[in-house]
Amino acid sequence: MTHTVEKIGGTSMSRVNELRDTLIIGNRKGADLYGRIFVVSAFGGITDLLLEHKKSGKAGVYAAFASSDSDHGWHEALDRVSDAMVAAHKAVLDHPGDIERADAFVHDRILGARNCLIDLQRLCTYGHFRLSEHMLQTRELLSGLGEAHSAFVTALMLQRAGVNARFVDLSGWRDEGDVSLDERIEGAMKDIDPAAEMPIVTGYAQCAEGLMREFDRGYSEVTFSRLASMTGAREAIIHKEFHLSSADPKLVGQDAVRKLGRTNYDVADQLSNLGMEAIHPKAAKTLRQSGVPLRVTNAFEPEDPGTLIDDQPADGPNVEIVTGLDLFALELFEQDMVGAKGYDSAVLDILTRHNVRIVSKVSNANTVTHYVDSSLKVLRRVEKDLVERYPSARVTSRAISMVAAVGRDLNGLAVLSRGLNALADNGLEAIGATQGPRPVDVQFIVEREVMQPAIKALHHALIENSDSGLLKAA
User: Fold this and answer.
1) CATH number of the CATH domain containing 118
2) For the Aspartate/glutamate/uridylate kinase domain, which residue ranges apply (predicted)?
3) Which range of residues forms the domain containing residue 94?
4) pLDDT digits (tens, 9 = 90+) for 86-101
């Protein structure tokens, strides 16, 4: 256990030339350069162009290929990917020879993907084959292009700087056979000595399990965690472009936020549920079961140790973070629900069928309310199915936000009552509030337009004031 496995995200990858001189090399020389395995994401924005934009949903190559009635849409989208890849590596590479090799790499991979999609399209003109049956494999093929490009470019850049870096391609490009994720990693790493060379590994790994089937765009963290577990890493490190802090510094102020410093996997799971992923929950589970601690750092402050995430309990009760998420409240009201069974399970079945993520829920004698993370379009389909299932029920939905106070141990802090008072003191009203028996989070439901002021009010009352000794366990 002498090495670390470290992941660099897409936004940070777009400045990998800066990271070369600080995070990756810095003042290290000789043997001190090694004992580190880097897992890299695609350069910022590339995966959006390959698949679809993560936030806006704007179509990339995958979406254009899936819906296009002609060749033109996805071909043009693939050309845009090629141009963006070339621009990305020209921004970080200095040597003309390295740029030439990177250009050739992009040309080869894009041409190969284009020919594959053309052949698939042609094959599916025959009645025996359905394009829909091959879309998952198509999504995987396209995803792997981004990470393969960034890993190849990073290895080139480091080799030019005198580092014995090796490009490790887990994307299965032109490989024969179908192997498991463990077999893919084991085969790629078997001849590599991290003590003498620096592996630069693709965040995407092609395998029989199909990472995108379960994890979609969270696949790079799954690869990262499995690699750390299988190689017996001393520590798994995620380098982000910010510290894991008590709130968004842009919202509450740089001087007001506190770097977490230390927390546990339980808090990481709560943050993931609220859309603020420190790490994908399944990746966290792998590290947790393997006994590998996780560290989250700011990639551009390499001297700062960041935040350590392990299984250790807190030294004492404390609110560690306040965050929020825009959601919809889906409400089913049925007067005949009192004493009857099955309503809740029926709602769950319909939400599952439409692949709607449930963040939280509350219920009383005749009402079940689910707070869901969904698009309005999908939610309308859910409402339609619920009305068909329960014609006499009243089904409604409304846009709301959830603001949560999270910590390893909230015992004795009266977070619920203090939080409600803090909102009221700032002229804000909570639509609802929930606190479960496990003292790890308290959720406040507010109107969307007051989410940001609610986060500021709760952070000031529950975290900033606690620094001054004003908030203590009862």
Assistant:
1) 3.40.1160.10
2) 4-298
3) 4-241
4) 999 999 999 999 999 9
